[in-house]
Amino acid sequence: MFRIEKVLNHNAVIAVTKEDEKIKEYLVLGKGIGFGKKVAQQFDINSTDRIYSLEKTSKRGRAKEMVKAISPIYLEIAGEVLKEAEKKFQHVDNNIVFPMADHIEYAVKRMKNSEQISNPLTDDIRVLFYLEYKIAEVARTLLKERLDVMIDDDEVGYIALHVHSAIQGEDVSQSMQIASAVRQCVSLIEKETHTTIKIESLSYNRMMNHIRYMVARVLNNEPVKLNMNDYIANTYPDSFAMATVICEKLGNSLGKKLNEVEIGYLAMHLERVKCDIKQESEMA
């Protein structure tokens, strides 16, 4: 049984309940859940209502403080986005609802003030986090329906990073680092090979996935056990040299020295990409 502490709007309330002899505070979202409700009124939640603990803290602040500053409509929209994420993924950290809602509200304010911020990684995010991007598009639809505001692809990309954060337990900044690292590596490969790797190509997707997990290993300090450097250096010297440069620059960008073993793995993928590019050019 929950007790109303504050009605935010017809579809959102702040409520408390007793758990393990302690009073816990929650944001409760549900169609019509706040309609006609009064402070101190008791109610039961149903299967379609969604509850979010106000005891959590993120880099943007404490949920209890954030919920006071965010307009309820954006909490509803963020909740709908996470509900969509739960249809596609088994585990979703619903506490992301607060920083996501905060971001969406701020994005709308920027748009109304003609202060849109471009996202140079939108195309990479769309491919790197494909399902997350599709889920984030729910926010675009809801903002248009409920507020007559149309956000662009760049903003959808930023929301997709929040969705990814909810799914993988990564900070949004870490997800952005991964996307940035992929773009940096692909740019370096294009420069070294004097070619343009199309985002929709098989070559890009193969390289993207390898770099994605390589960056995640670096950020999480996960070791690579099998050392193939000697073999790769002798078999594919050009790719190994390119991989060495890329790993050095990537380490500088991430502020972490990459394990030398990563060079051989990256070189192997580079060689594969070069073969793909050659085949694609021959077929063109």
Automatic annotation (TrEMBL):
Molecular functions (GO terms): RNA binding
InterPro entries found in the cross-reference section: BglG_antiterminators (IPR050661), CAT_RNA-bd_dom (IPR004341), CAT_RNA-bd_dom_sf (IPR036650), PRD (IPR011608), PRD_sf (IPR036634)
GO BP, sorted A to Z: regulation of DNA-templated transcription
Domain of life: Bacteria
UniProt KW keywords: Repeat, Transcription, Transcription regulation
Stretches assigned to the PRD domain: 69-173, 174-280
Pfam families assigned: CAT_RBD, PRD
Protein name: Transcriptional antiterminator, BglG family
Species per Swiss-Prot/TrEMBL record: Lachnobacterium bovis
